Amino acid sequence: MLLEQIINGITLGSIYAIVALGFTLVFGVLGIINMAHGEIFMIGAFIGVLITSVLGLPLWIAFIAAIGVTVILGYMLERIALRPLRGKQGVSHLAPLISTIGVSILLENLSHHIFGAGNHPFRHSFAQIQFQIGSITVYLVQILIFVISITLMVVLSYWLSKTKAGKALRATAENLETASLLGVNTKRTITTTVILASALGGIAGILVGMAFNSVNPQMGLSMGLKGLAIIILGGMGNVKGAMAGGLLLGLAETMIVAYGDSGYRDAVAFITIIFILLLRPQGIFGKNTAEAGR
């Protein structure tokens, strides 16, 4: 039924939105695309496999563990791969991007070495629980994914607009030098941003495991490209755009699989980008957020 496919699309789109938020936060503050974000997401998913499928522990522990590991990865990424390149004379503006690509390759190769190249089952107790609402079947896992995703979006939006740390992040995104002159600790803000983005990636990894019941080392590249597509679609550095773009892409992919050829599923992201950018080059909610000299 169409309504069931819409529910499936919203579920998938909610996950995409969380992944895209991680890309958006880093781009908004640093003006770079973090190409390692997809692999950090993948690591979060594998932490979930280790906790739920290997150790047999509850799902909530998997969330905590995934957040903990990805926070550490985010901290190391900022301190080792990004900070040494920031503000240094003679360093190309492409250097941070290339650095994150290197981290991406490293994490994927490590995952291949540790886990192997195949699919790994993600077992959890909610997989088969479902509700029948008339002729519509809704799975508990879909409800959980939607609720968790929406909660994260609401909390993040509130944090960005109402808290001191969130306002510092927004000020740094608007103009790093001016924010520093106004007393904002921009180094700490940048570190916080990368850590927060990585934690969102870890949570999204668990959500994908819940949704598809399996994970693999290649999923990071695929999700990373889709996350990049979403932030272009929604508007570079725009939080609302990331949310809207994620939901739109999830719905588009689901409808293609349900009523078209599933072989075109991954191509939908980029076909949608072309279509939207022809109509609105700056993206759905887009505006120029990258300032000169950042």
Salient structural properties:
single chain; 294 residues; mainly alpha; ABC transporter involved in vitamin B12 uptake, BtuC; two-stranded antiparallel sheet; 11 helices; 72% helix; globular; disordered C terminus
Topology (SSEs and partners):
Blueprint (H helix, E strand, L loop, with lengths): L1 H29 L6 H18 L4 H24 L12 H21 L4 E2 L8 E4 L2 E4 H23 L1 H11 L1 H6 L4 H27 L1 E2 L3 H16 L4 H21 L5 H15 L15
Antiparallel strand pairs: 1-4, 2-3
Helix pairs in contact: 1-5, 1-6, 1-8, 1-9, 1-10, 2-3, 2-4, 2-8, 2-9, 3-8, 5-6, 6-8, 9-10, 9-11, 10-11
The tally of helices reads: 11
Structural class: mainly alpha
Reading the helices and strands in chain order gives HHHHEEEHHHHEHHH
Query: Percent range for helical residues?
Result: over 70%
Radius of gyration: 19 Å
Q: Ends: how far apart?
A: 49 Å
General form:
globular
> Which strand order do you get reading across the main beta sheet?
1-4
Q: Strand fraction band? A: under 5%
The CATH architecture comes to Orthogonal Bundle
Which stretches of 5+ consecutive residues score pLDDT under 50?
289-294
Major sheet, described briefly?
Answer: 2 strands, antiparallel
Q: Describe it for me?
A:
- The protein is mainly α and 294 residues long.
- It has one domain (2-279): ABC transporter involved in vitamin B12 uptake, BtuC (Orthogonal Bundle).
- It is built from eleven helices and four strands; from the N terminus they run H-H-H-H-E-E-E-H-H-H-H-E-H-H-H.
- It has a two-stranded antiparallel ribbon with strand order 1-4. Strands 2-3 form a two-stranded antiparallel ribbon.
